[in-house]
Specification:
The chain is 9% helix and 56% strand. With 233 residues, the chain is mainly beta. The strands form 2 sheets. It has a 12-stranded antiparallel β-barrel. Strands 1-9 form a two-stranded antiparallel ribbon. A hairpin with a 7-residue loop joins strand 10 and strand 11. It starts with a helix and ends with a strand.
Length: 233
């Protein structure tokens, strides 16, 4: 969740500012996904998502029809006690470093942000290139394959003064088949400006287990002009 916010910071501060058919192969077909009948513990999954650590990534995509490539790392700090909007919270700093390439030109990937959570590790806010306040943040205690719903709605501002609105963010979740003991958790965030026009959509996919472990797979950004960026972990 916090990864996608931080990457969005980098997108607007680097690649967007820099913007000025394949053949087949013999790779064997992947096994068909299995719709597990197990339940997956959400609180444990969210807690594991908030653990400190480093996540390497590779970048692919297109900007104005030009291919994007790159690589880097996202570093999760330790969760610490804090306050957000006057209420007790957990906060976690996240940092991204790396290098992207567009049309032979290297572009540094660099950014920091802070995610805020309640005691159940549900997101309640974010502070980075934008200040976001989430409301109605909720998830069931357990999920199963084919479950879906809304995680939160958020109001976005230029800073924590909340004087200048930027727009909104709405995040939904869906649980998709994978194996008999795992599933794919898909978080989709839709960003709109103050006029209600969609400015970007990101989809974050992770593999979850019945023990509550979580492995990040990728984050995909799609923009109305056809640009796309995929961060694969």
């Amino acid at each position: 969740m916090k990864y996608s916010k931080l990457i969005l910071t980098v997108l607007f501060s680097s690649f967007l500012a820099a913007c000025g058919g394949g053949g087949g192969d013999s790779t064997p077909a992947a096994a068909a996904p299995v719709a597990s009948t197990a339940t997956f513990p959400v609180k444990t999954i969210l807690a594991n998502n908030a653990k400190a650590g480093t996540l390497p990534f590779t970048l692919s995509g297109f900007s104005s029809g030009v291919a994007l490539t790159g690589n880097g790392t996202i570093t999760n700090g330790n969760s610490t006690a804090a306050t957000f909007e006057g209420s007790p919270a957990l906060q976690q700093n996240v940092t991204i470093t790396g290098t992207g390439f567009r049309n032979g030109t290297s572009i540094p990937l660099s950014g920091t942000g802070t995610g805020y959570y309640d005691s159940n590790y549900l997101p309640i806010g974010y502070n980075g290139n934008e200040y976001i306040v989430y409301t109605n943040s909720t998830l069931p205690s357990t999920v199963q394959v084919n479950d879906a719903g809304t995680v939160f709605t958020g109001k976005r501002y230029t800073s924590n003064s909340k004087i200048v609105p930027v727009g909104t963010e709405t995040q939904t979740y869906a649980v998709q088949p994978d194996t008999a003991t795992t599933a794919i958790l898909v978080l989709t965030s839709v960003y709109k400006n103050v006029s209600g026009t969609v400015t970007s959509t990101n989809t974050e996919k992770s593999r979850i287990t019945t023990a509550g472990d979580l492995t990040h797979l990728n984050i995909t950004y799609v923009f109305p002009n056809g640009d796309s960026q995929v961060y694969t972990f």
